[in-house]
Amino acid sequence: MKGILSPVIEHIVQTTIRAIGEKERMDKAVGRHRKMLQHTSGNYRMSEVEFALADLLITRDGPGDWAEAGRLYDHVLETAIYGYLRGAALIGKAELAVRSLDNKKISEAITLGERALKILHEFVGPEDFFTLKSLLVVAELRLKRNEDKDIKEAIKLFQKAIDTKNANPYWKARALVNISELHRGTKGKEAKKFIGYCQQSVKLLIDRPDDYFVYKAYIVEGEIRFLLKKTVDRKKAMDLMSKVIYAKNSDIDLKVRAKLDKAEVMRREKGLKLCTEVIGMPNLDQYLYDKATALQAAIKVELKR
Length: 305
Known about the structure:
The protein folds into three domains: about 1-120, Serine Threonine Protein Phosphatase 5, Tetratricopeptide repeat (Alpha Horseshoe); about 180-250, no CATH class; about 255-305. It has helices at about 5-20, 25-40, 45-60, 65-80, 85-95, 105-125, 130-145, 150-165, 170-180, 190-205, 210-230, 230-245, 250-265, 270-280, 285-305. The longest helix has 22 residues, at about 105-125. It has 15 helices and no strands. It is an all-alpha fold.
């Protein structure tokens, strides 16, 4: 029936909600779903379990997990020719492109995501977990592609997720952080609005204090406050960056971003030290090394004056 979830899909929706930001539980969940596949018969029921396993692999994000998830989504799409499961699998497959550097693949993924959004909106409406996921994934892919009107369209999608009455807290929080990041240069009332968005996102994720987007919210709020240049805002921003830097479970890219943000506004010698720390860290994305090196050079020039 339209809009009615099967027990398996209902289970994976709830599991995914709980699992986001809790990677330590993923191994057991993945193992359970692998066993379920061994005892599942019937094409549609098997596709449901395959979809559930693919979504868990994306969340776990271990070596080879995304490639395996892609194969599972493809198999699901061979059997789920219409309906809710097809829409959910389409947005899962589209999500795989968020790490791609190939604009053609990103554009193809945006098309998949828009198809998923249309299907899911029809079958389960705008408030469904995977409908909202479609909004966020398409928006983030548009940001990554960054072609004509992509930023403008992404902002519309983020705002749509924010305005959805009964939006799942995770997707709403993620939309609040992302739209705030796009408005970091605002001042006055607008700056206060997006600072409030960041703080609201942290509250929405209160049950997942170590989630990636909690720490990203701290950073984005801090970056907005740094631009306001008031002493009280600068102190608050420094505290937020330190919270990310010294948090045990914050991602390395966010730690580096926080260090470089602090380096830009600290006394020159301390800023230089932070840049040196970043440059000495192994296995970072090249753009982070480049940013740290450029900032280090700029600070050295200032110290010579």
